[in-house]
Structure formats: C-alpha cells, structure tokens
Design a protein that fits this description.
It is a single chain. The protein is α/β, with parallel strands linked by helices and 255 residues long. The chain contains twelve helices and eight strands. The radius of gyration is 17 Å and the shape is globular. The relative contact order is 0.15. The protein binds 2-phosphoglycolic acid.
C-alpha cells in the first residue's frame, strides 16, 4: 500500500514571520494526522525557521529546489548537504523552474541522483503544456520527461522517489485535469514507463501526486482515483483553512 502524501508548495510566498504563523496553525489543525504523509515546502529563506518549528511533528519540510554538487562556487544555490540539514524532501523540476530558470530533464536527473545519494526524498514534477495536451502529445511528452529524470537510477533508489503529475495549464489557473484523465495519464505515462524501465513492483511502489489547482472542493475526486496517491498544492497551501480542508477532505474520502 502506498501511503497518501499531500505537500504544500509555497513558491515565493511567506516571510519568516508569516511562515511561522502558518505552520503554528497547521500544527494545531493537522497535528494528529498519522495515516497520511504531510509536508510543507517553504521558500529557502524560511526553511530553517519552519524546520525548527516543525521538529518532532508529523508535518515534514521540503525545499523547492537544490543544486547537485555538495559545495562550491555556485552563487545563489543550495547544496544537498545544506538542504539535508533542514528538510526531508526536495521538489525538483517544477514547471516554473523549467520555464523561468532553465531546468531541463538533464539537470533534473543530476539533482535527482544527488537527492537520493543524500537521503532526501525527491518530489519530481512532470507535466505537459496546453499545446501538447491539445495536440494529443501528453503521454509521449510526460513519458519522455520520466525517462530523462530516471536515466541511470537503479530500481531500489527509484522506489523512493515521489512524482507529481502537474499539467502546466492547470497550475495556478483554477483549471484542473479531470480526475479520470489524470488517472489515465499517470497510468500510461508514468506507471507503464516505470514498469518498462524497472519492473511492476517498482512502478507500483512509487507514489504519484496530482498537482494543478487542487482545492478543498476537488481533492476528494482526485484522491479516490487508484493511480493518484496525494497532491502537490500551490495556492491553496498558503492558508491554514484551505490546506487543512484539503487534507481533511482527502482523509474523509479515503475512509
Ligand atoms: P496550484 O500550484 O495549486 O496553485 O495550481 C500547484 C503547483 O505548482 O505545485
């Protein structure tokens, strides 16, 4: 059984003070949730404070990006050694990093190997653009992103990866894939590719989140899908009420 996993991607929002206020609230509303894995991914400037505030709690902490080298002259970057001090997870290859910061399948692959080597759980984001979706290229494109990300990674490491299927056109737009479409794409472009790359056991072990305008009122429809194991939540993770309602609605739907 794959343990459901909901993570909040705060993107470039929240000062340290705002971040601490949000996690104080989440500890109160979600502190007793044990059947689902939970994490928040603050901006790098708030990682240390949030990590301290959530120490010993059931809510994990993730970074939103990292470089693949342990140290060096790489101005502005954070290394896996540094991330590991503060976080258990790292988001890799988010579409905003691919779009605005030059992230490619090759750099995602290097970062993925570095995360696994350092015992950080990667949340690898993949997903197609609106044009690709309309042209019927979703499965081939996402399958290609998968093959690029997992190149050279052995099966025992691959099983530790979390994937987030995030159609780019659904991120921050209020639009979502239908739960049925998301489920089908995860099957055809993710699990079938993993089965071909590794084996059925590895493909079945890996958790796949859906991301893209997840809100309290649509979470249940996604989480009940057999291939969907949770969510990566952007905008709706920035408030105690909405992130709490997403988690509670998912828990209720799984009962
Ligand atoms: P959204 O963002 O929930 O605001 O659409 C999701 C994401 O980018 O991970």
């Amino acid at each position: 059984m794959r343990k459901p996993f909901i993570a909040g991607n705060w993107k470039m929002y929240k000062t340290v003070a705002q971040a601490l206020e949000l996690v104080a609230g989440l500890k109160q509303t979600l502190g007793d949730v044990l059947t689902m894995e939970l994490a928040v991914c603050p901006p790098a400037t708030a990682l240390a404070a949030v990590s301290g505030a959530l120490a010993g709690s059931n809510i994990g902490v993730g970074a939103q990006n990292m470089y693949w080298k342990d140290e060096g002259a790489f101005t502005g970057e954070s290394s896996p050694v540094m991330v590991k001090e503060l976080a258990q997870y790292v988001i890799l290859g988010h579409s905003e990093r691919r779009q605005f910061f030059g992230e490619t399948d090759e750099t995602v692959n290097l970062k993925l190997k570095a995360a696994l080597a350092h015992g950080i759980t990667p949340i690898v984001c993949i997903g197609e653009s609106l044009e690709q979706n309309k042209a019927g290229e979703t499965v081939s494109f996402v399958g290609g992103q998968m093959r690029g990300a997992f190149a050279g990674i052995p099966a025992e490491d691959a099983a530790k990866v979390v994937l987030a299927y995030e159609p780019i056109w659904a991120i921050g737009t209020g639009l979502t894939a239908t739960p049925e479409d998301a489920n089908r794409i995860i099957k055809e472009a993710i699990r079938d590719v993993l089965t071909a790359f590794y084996d059925t056991a590895t493909a079945e072990a890996i958790r796949v989140q859906y991301g893209g305008s997840v809100k309290p009122d649509n979470m249940a429809d996604f989480i009940v899908m057999p291939e969907i194991d949770g969510a990566l939540v952007g905008g709706a993770s920035l408030k105690v009420d909405s992130f709490t309602a997403i988690v509670k609605n998912a828990l209720a739907a799984l009962k």
